[in-house]
Design goal:
mainly alpha; two-stranded antiparallel ribbon; 57% helix; flat
């Protein structure tokens, strides 16, 4: 006996149901990630937000909008077809709002954390007066009064030596102009990266050896010619 297929009534294909809620989450989250991506594409803004949690939040918004929420939408849409059981809406709908609200409470605040706007404003308004050279640094800018006067130093300084004189260094350039803007002190010679690489290679070879032995134990009985009794 052939299965009977009943056509779905017209106008019932699009419904504001659980999978459509996750599609709404796709647009909501991915649009926020896309807008901040446009912001990071501007070099002056990226200079301020580079290597900060602003970029971390942008990455999570884009990844969740492009992968997590669409995957959950497809999972809830086809799960009744795979299991033959209906969705428990009293549990699944609150779970969607918990995921959406919890996601935004976690990563939306990272945009502000990454720019540190609140911290800077509070420091400028309520921060206590700092003593000279609070970090005990060895560079010249900390030898000036705080805050420094407009003329910096009244006379040319005489330098006796520098603590980092024997350390190798290289010039760092600006990301947009290419002009040198900083001196990067490189780490001294060490064998630690070599020993780390050898340890990683040893671990990988050990895993490959175990996998090869397991493969031989599995394929050996299968490939061994059968004997007649």
């Amino acid at each position: 006996m052939k299965d009977q297929v009943t056509a779905m009534p017209a106008g019932k294909t699009d419904r504001w149901d659980l999978p459509m809620l996750y599609i709404f989450g796709v647009f909501f989250v991915f649009v926020l990630g896309g807008l901040t991506g446009v912001m990071l594409a501007m070099v002056p803004f990226d200079c301020q937000a580079h290597d900060s949690h602003f970029v971390v939040a942008h990455l999570h918004y884009v990844v969740a909008g492009a992968f997590l929420f669409p995957m959950l939408a497809g999972l809830y849409y086809w799960l009744p077809l795979l299991t033959g059981r209906a969705t428990i809406k009293r549990l699944s709908v609150p779970a969607f709002w918990l995921i959406l609200v919890g996601f935004n409470l976690t990563f939306l605040l990272m945009y502000l954390v990454g720019l540190l706007l609140i911290d800077l404003l509070i420091q400028l308004r309520y921060g206590r007066r700092s003593k000279r050279d609070p970090w005990q640094a060895t560079t010249l800018e900390w030898a000036m009064p705080m805050p420094p006067p407009s003329y910096n130093f009244a006379s040319i300084l005489h330098l006796e030596g520098h603590a980092d004189a024997l350390s190798p260094a290289t010039l760092g350039v600006h990301m947009s102009s290419g002009q040198p803007d900083q001196l990067i002190v490189l780490p001294k010679s060490t064998y630690l990266p070599l020993w780390t690489g050898l340890a990683a290679a040893k671990a990988v070879l050990a895993m490959l050896a175990k996998a090869f032995i397991a493969l031989v134990l599995i394929l050996g009985p299968i490939m061994w010619p059968a004997t007649c009794v």
